[in-house]
Amino acid sequence: MPAQSAGRQARVLFLTESYWPVLGGGEQHIRQIASALAARGMTCTVVARRGDAAWPEQELLDGVRVLRVPPAGPGRSGKYLMALPAALRLLRERPRFDVAVVRGTRVLGLPGLLAARLAGKALVLQAEVSGEMSGEIYTWGTRYDRAPVSGLVHAGVRVRNGLMRDADAFVTISRRTQAEFLAAGLPADRVVYLPHGIDTQRFRPAGDSERAEVRARLGLPAAALLIVFTGRLLQGKGVDTLLAAFERLAPQDARLHLVLVGSGAGQALSMEDQLRARVSEVGLQARVTFAGRVETVPDWLRAADLYAFPSFFEAMPLSIMEAAACGLPLASTRIGGVEDVIEHERSGLLIEPGDVAALTDVLRRLASDPALRASLGAAARKTIVERFAFDAHVERYRALFNSVGRPL
C-alpha cells in the first residue's frame, strides 16, 4: 500500500455502528480520537447510524464532520440494516478521505472493506470486543451456543476472516485481542497493538475535601463507602452479578452504597428495568443509586471509594481505565484488556465473570481494608500515567493513518 504523500496528512473516515449522543466506551473513544486528530490538523469524518430520528443527519462536532445513516430507532436489527446505507455513504465520501477505519468487525467489517476497496482507499479494522475474530461473541449466552449451530458459525467466521485479511492494518486494543487476531491467521506485520489512551488531568484522584464537595453536589451520602460502576446497563455487562453481590454485602456492612452510572434505556439488551425492579423487590432503594445517563463521569468516579467492573466481554474497557486514572481500587473480571491495566493483587483484584461469591469476597475485602484500597488505587493510577497517556496514544494513531493512507 503506498504511503501518504509527504506534506499532507491522511484524511480519515471512521465507520462505526453508533456515535454521540450514545454514551459508551467505544463511542467515547472514537469521539476523543477523532476530535484530537482534528485538533492536530487532520480532516476527520464519522459515519454512524442515526439511532434517533431527532438526531441531525449531518453536523460538525468538535471539529469532526458527523454523518448519520438510516435506519433510525432502537432495536438490534438497526445495526445490520445500516450496513448497506453506510457502505453507500462511504462510496459517496470517497473524494473526502484517504483511509477508512471500521470499528467492530461483526457487522461493518466486510461492508466497510468492500466499500473502501471500491473507493480505492486504505482500510483499518478495529475489534470492538473480544471474541469477534474467534466467533465466540456470536453465540455466547444464546440458545445457539451448542453444536451444530456453533460449529457452522465458527466456520463462517473463518471464511470471513480470510476475506478480511486484505485490510491494510488491524488495530487491537488489548493483548488478548492481539492474540486472537494472530490466531485467526491475520498477517502479523499488519496487526498493531494500540490500546486506549486516557486524559489523566480530566480523570484524576480527588482529595477528601473535593470528594465531599462532589458527593454533596451529586446528592450522594456523605459518610457512605461508595461502590461505583460506570457503563451501559446491558446484558453481558455483569451488572446483575454486581447487584447480587451487593445484596449479600449490604446486610453485613451498613456503610456500603452502590452507584450505577449509566443507562440501558432504548437499547435491545437493556437490563435497567430488571435491575430497578430487583432493587425494589429486595428493599435496597435507599442504598442503590441509579445515576442514569451522565456526561460528567469524572465527578462520579471522584466521589467513589472503590470501583467494580463485572463485565463478561470487552476488548479494552475504557471505563476501567478511567477509574484507574482516578486512583480507585479496582475489582474486575479477568476479560479482554483488563489484564493490560490491572495486575492482580498489585493494582486491583481480578475474578472470573459471573462468579457472585468471588465478587462478594473481593468487595468485602476492599471495603474492610483502607490501606489495601489506597495501595491498589495508587498503583492503578501509576499504570495509566506511565503506559496509557492520551497524547502518545493520539500520535500513534496519526502515524498509523498517515502510513497506510493512499494519496489522491
- The CATH architecture name of the largest domain reads 3-Layer(aba) Sandwich
Q: Would you tell me the overall average pLDDT?
A: 92
* CA-based shape: globular
Q: Helical percent range?
A: 40-55%
Q: The CATH topology of the largest domain, please?
A: Rossmann fold
How much of the sequence lies in strands comes to 15-25%
Largest sheet: 8 strands, mixed
Count of helix runs: 16
Head-to-tail CA distance between termini = 13 Å
Describe it.
The protein has 408 residues and is of the alpha/beta class. It folds into two domains: 12-197 and 389-404, 3-Layer(aba) Sandwich (Rossmann fold), CATH 3.40.50; 208-387, 3-Layer(aba) Sandwich (Rossmann fold). 41% of the residues lie in helices and 16% in strands. The chain is built from 16 helices and 14 strands. Strands 3-4-2-1-5-6-7-8 form an eight-stranded mixed β-sheet, sandwiched between helices. It has a six-stranded parallel β-sheet with strand order 11-10-9-12-13-14, with helices on both faces. Helix 12 (318-325) links the parallel strand 12 (306-309) and strand 13. Helix 9 (239-249) crosses helix 14. The chain is globular.
